[in-house]
Amino acid sequence: MTVLKHLSKLKQTMNIIFKILKYTFFIAFLFSLVSLAALYGAINKVSSPAAVELEVQEGSSVKDIAQLLKEQRVVKTPHVFRFWIKVNGWENKMHAGVYHFEKGVSLSQVARKLYFGDVIVDRFQIIEGKTLQDVARSLAANQEFGGKSFAEDFLSLAYDKTFLESLGLKNVPSLEGYLLADTYKINRPKTAKSFITQIYSVFQKRYEPLLQARARNMKMSVHQVLTLASIVEKETGVAEERPVIAGVFLNRLQRGMLLQSDPTIIYGLKQYDGNIRKKDITDPHPFNTYVHAGLPLGPICSVGKEAIEAVLAPAKTQFLYFVSKNDGSHYFSSTLTEHLRAVHKYQIEYFRKQKK
After folding, report:
1. Which tens digit of pLDDT belongs to each residue from 46-67?
2. Rounded distance, CA 78 to CA 130, Å?
3. Which letter, b or e, does each residue of 314-351 get, where b requires 16 or more Cβ atoms within 10 Å of its Cβ?
4. Structural domains in the chain plus CATH codes
5. CA atoms within 13 Å, Cβ hemisphere of 95
6. What is the pTM of this model?
């Protein structure tokens, strides 16, 4: 009888335990469902209250990005954001750049945007023949880039020796000529350094390797090619004349003649009112090719690929001189006598008639 009582009590106890486990599992299951529902809501339903533009810095960790998103009120639960990134295996696949998050965007949408690098892309044009000062004026007028202060930072860096060396540009006076004329699509820059780095990288990837090889064949450095190309760029806007003008300057260099290019005088003047005077011709600034033999210190403007091609594939000619015909084109001469006659015809007589 005693044994039967013990068995009965054991059975009762086991029933109680099973009921407790049953309710425990049920509660745990409900809790899991609630947690999953909350997690799903945090990931897909909770949305940002306002449109936000922010920058993710290069090298930012997921923790850094999560904190930034919380501070800017893009996500409310940074720990959930970090969890979601880890679950998807995106920890080291977030892209730097400037992002625009619209009002109402969810955490999952934010994560995907960062993973795919859906940054703001801007277009910026550098025109052939324009200088760093011209580029700075364009930047100052562009409020999306930061306006006047951004332009000032740009010019400061463009002449900063340490920064230039960090780009691999040693013994060059500035970035002049190294920001090639083109229309660029760039990730919206928040700093002048980012702007320069993105544009200069186009030159490094698209032009520099080929340019180095072809320049070497001509026994010139990349810096010399860009310098001569910038003079060609400023001397003519007529496409078919570029190889001929490049050939003229190369002929003069080979003969040890001064280049005597007016644009090099203008570039080095502190003030220029549209007229070159005798004192300007004799000004010994380092870009004046009427005073100094050979190429000037560096490029005098931004160059396009056509001007570079003209230097790398110049016209084979005996010309040593050229003079403007006042219609955008030039008259080319092989001898000084012929050149002086052309100067008289196209300059002296032309302007004499203009005054009548």
Report:
1. 667 888 888 898 888 999 999 9
2. 47
3. bbebebbbbbbeeeeebbbbeeeeebeebbeebeeeee
4. 52-116 (3.30.1490.480), 121-207 (no CATH), 217-355 (no CATH)
5. 15
6. 0.80
